[in-house]
Specification:
Strand content: 15-25%
Order of helices and strands: HHHHHHEEHEHEHEEEHEHEHEEE
Helix content: 40-55%
Largest sheet: 6 strands, mixed
CATH architecture of the largest domain: 4-Layer Sandwich
Organism: Blautia caecimuris
Number of strands: 12
Keywords: Membrane, Transmembrane, Transmembrane helix
Pfam families: Metallophos
Shape: elongated
CATH topology of the largest domain: Purple Acid Phosphatase, chain A, domain 2
Protein name: MPP superfamily phosphohydrolase
Number of domains: 2
InterPro entries: Calcineurin-like_PHP (IPR004843), Metallo-depent_PP-like (IPR029052), Metallophosphoesterase_sf (IPR051158)
C-alpha cells in the first residue's frame, strides 16, 4: 500500500480495529433489536434471547479463524461470512436510524418498527451482494505497445481465491467467460488460492477444478504469479495443482514470447521476491515488456525499470461499500483500480475474478479483463 493510511492498515492494529467493529456492530444490533421487541410489548425473555443471539454471532465472527481451524466446516464458514456482512450493514443503517429518530423525535413504537424494517433491508442488501458476487463482467482496454503491426488479446484475471466461497461453479463461469474472448494469452495475477489454503487438502475437488482450468482455450499459454494469499512456491500440492491445470507459474521468471517478454514477480508475503533489476538480465530489451505483479505497490519499480505494461490485482477495488473508499485511500487513486499511465508505462489493476472472507460484492464486480495490445 502506497499511502500513510495504507501503512497503518498493513499493521496488526487494523485487524484489531476490524474485530472491534464487528463486535460493536453485534452489540448495537443486540441492544436496538432487544429494545425494539420490548417496546412493542413482547416479553422480556424474548428480548433477551434476541440480544444473546446477536452477541453470540458477533463473538463467533471474531473467532472465525480459530473455529475453522478446529472444525473446518465449509457451510459454517460460509454462514459466518454472510452474517458478518449483515452485522456491518445492519450497524450502519441502524446507527443512521438512531440519529434520525433522535433528531426528529420519532415515537418509540415507530422507532421499533423502523428497526425491524431496516434489519430486513440489511438482509436484502447482503443477499443481493451475495448473488452479485456470482457474476463476472468484462472490462476492456486497448494498449499500444509497438508490436510492429501485430496484435495480441490477453485475458487477465486476478484474485480468484479458491476456497470456501469460490469453487467449481465459479471456475466454470470464469473458464466460459475467458473462452468467449478467444484470447491469445491468459494471465492470472496472483491469489489463486484463498488465505487458509484448506482447499489444497481436498484432492478430489482440486482434480475437478484442474479439469475445468484445462478447458481454457488460448494460443500462447496460461501464466500466473503468486499473490499474498497463495502458498509458498515450493508447496508440492500447489505445484501439482498448477501443473495439472496447465497453468505455468512465473516465480520471479521471464519468458520470451513472439512479440514481447512476460516477466512474473512473486509477492513477498510468503515467498522470496526478485527485483526488477535482477529480472532485467533475462529480458530481451528489443521487445516490449509486460510485468505480472500481484500487488500494485510494485508498479513504481516497474515504471523506473521502463516496463511497457504492468498487470496487477490485490485491491479487489475494495470488494464492498464502504471498504471501497478505505481501500482507495490506502492504495492511492493511481494504484487502486483501472488503467493508469506513468510515462511510457501502462498499468492495469483488476478488481479480481473472485472474492474472499466476506462473500459479497456491493458496489464492485468480479471481472475478466480483456486487453487488446498492438
Amino acid at each position: 500500500m502506497n499511502t500513510a493510511f495504507g501503512k497503518i492498515l498493513e499493521k496488526k492494529i487494523f485487524k484489531k480495529v476490524f474485530s472491534v467493529v464487528i463486535l460493536l456492530s453485534s452489540v448495537v444490533g443486540a441492544v436496538m433489536n432487544s429494545y425494539a421487541v420490548w417496546t412493542l410489548g413482547v416479553s422480556t425473555g424474548v428480548s433477551c434471547i434476541i440480544g444473546i443471539i446477536y452477541i453470540v454471532m458477533g463473538i463467533s465472527a471474531l473467532m472465525q479463524n480459530q473455529i475453522m481451524e478446529k472444525w473446518r466446516n465449509k457451510k459454517l464458514e460460509m454462514l459466518m461470512g454472510i452474517y458478518s456482512c449483515f452485522f456491518i450493514y445492519d450497524f450502519m443503517i441502524l446507527l443512521l436510524w438512531w440519529i434520525f429518530s433522535a433528531l426528529f423525535m420519532v415515537s418509540g413504537k415507530a422507532q421499533a418498527m423502523g428497526v425491524f424494517v431496516l434489519d430486513i433491508l440489511a438482509v436484502i442488501i447482503v443477499a443481493l451482494g451475495y448473488l452479485h458476487a456470482k457474476n463476472i463482467k468484462y472490462t476492456a482496454y486497448s494498449i499500444p505497445l509497438g508490436l510492429r503491426g501485430n496484435t495480441c488479446r490477453i485475458a487477465m484475471m486476478s484474485d480468484i481465491h479458491l476456497g470456501v466461497f469460490v469453487g467449481e461453479k465459479h471456475i466454470q463461469n470464469i473458464v466460459d467467460k475467458v473462452n468467449r474472448l478467444e484470447p491469445d494469452l491468459v494471465v492470472i495475477c496472483g491469489d489463486i488460492i484463498d488465505v487458509n489454503n484448506h482447499i489444497l487438502e481436498d484432492d478430489e475437488v482440486l482434480g475437478r477444478i484442474s479439469s475445468l482450468f484445462c478447458k481454457i482455450k488460448e494460443k500462447k499459454g496460461v501464466f500466473a504469479v503468486l499473490g499474498n494469499h497463495d502458498p509458498k512456491a515450493d508447496n508440492k500440492k500447489f505445484a501439482d495443482f498448477l501443473r495439472a491445470s496447465n497453468i505455468q507459474l512465473l516465480h520471479n521468471q521471464v519468458i520470451q514470447l513472439e512479440d514481447f517478454c512476460l516477466a512474473g514477480r512473486t509477492d513477498a508475503s510468503n515467498n522470496c521476491r526478485s527485483s526488477m533489476e535482477s529480472l532485467a538480465k533475462e529480458i530481451n530489451s528489443s521487445l516490449p515488456v509486460i510485468v505480472l505483479d500481484h500487488n500494485p505497490s510494485g508498479i513504481p519499480e516497474a515504471v523506473e525499470f521502463g516496463a511497457d505494461l504492468v498487470l496487477s490485482g490485490h485491491t479487489h477495488k475494495g470488494q464492498f461499500f464502504p471498504v471501497t473508499y478505505f481501500t482507495k485511500l490506502a492504495n492511492g487513486k493511481h494504484y487502486f483500480y483501472g488503467h493508469e499511465q506513468f510515462g511510457k508505462t501502462h498499468a492495469i489493476i483488476s478488481s479480481g475474478a473472485g472474492f474472499f472472507q466476506l462473500p459479497v460484492r456491493i458496489g464492485t464486480s468480479n471481472e475478466i479483463v480483456d486487453i487488446h495490445i498492438s
